[in-house]
Amino acid sequence: MRTTVKLAATALVTASVLTLAGCGASGGTGSGSGPDAGNAVSISGADAKAGTLLDTPFTKPNLLLTDHHGKPYDLVKETAGHPTLLFFGYTHCPDVCPTTMSDLALAKSKLPATEQAKLRVVFVSSDPERDTPARLNAWLGAMDPSFIGLTGTFATIQAAARSLGVGIDAPVKEKDGSITVTHGAEVLAFWPKDDKAHVLYMSGVTAEQYEADLPELIRSEAP
Fold this sequence. Notes:
It contains six helices and 14 strands. It is of the alpha+beta class. It has a single domain, classed as Glutaredoxin, CATH 3.40.30. An eleven-stranded mixed sheet has the order 2-3-4-5-14-13-8-9-10-6-7, sandwiched between helices. A three-stranded mixed sheet has the order 1-12-11. Strand 4 and strand 5 (52-59) form a beta hairpin. Helix 2 packs across helix 6 (207-218).
């Protein structure tokens, strides 16, 4: 079965305002309507290939899901006081998701062991029906066994994503048997001092850029 992906919220920066909009990576175009389309975030700086400091930090969503071991996972409780990187994607993604998670794994591996132990990297599935705990465990384990994979009901995941300005739509089975999955391309970095997302990364950030920024993020400092 072939899977296609449409990226939502790839982030267009204009006049220091980040507007999250849908665009089709496989040739289509997002509708630009719904809760995501009008979600604008004020930012400091306008470099789409590096961390963007949010003027108004996002509150961590109250998200109760199932982790990659099949156990209940409370995002707020489990990551409280830890520097946390949050990404919404899916394991059948052909490009953005594996690239992003691999880059994060490489960057994390460069940190001292004490800092690695503090960091939490959380991958929330935008394709939860196919992304079972076993599937998440195998996929993430190949990158970094410490990474946390979460799955659950799509409505719960979508609500959490939208609260952070990340647009995802339910997977759609096309007439040719392919599955179209719309998901965000952002990594949100939560500081440990207040458990809020202060920095946002878009698709295109390299492992080296993450590596350079992680020590500051772990200290709750702007990169």
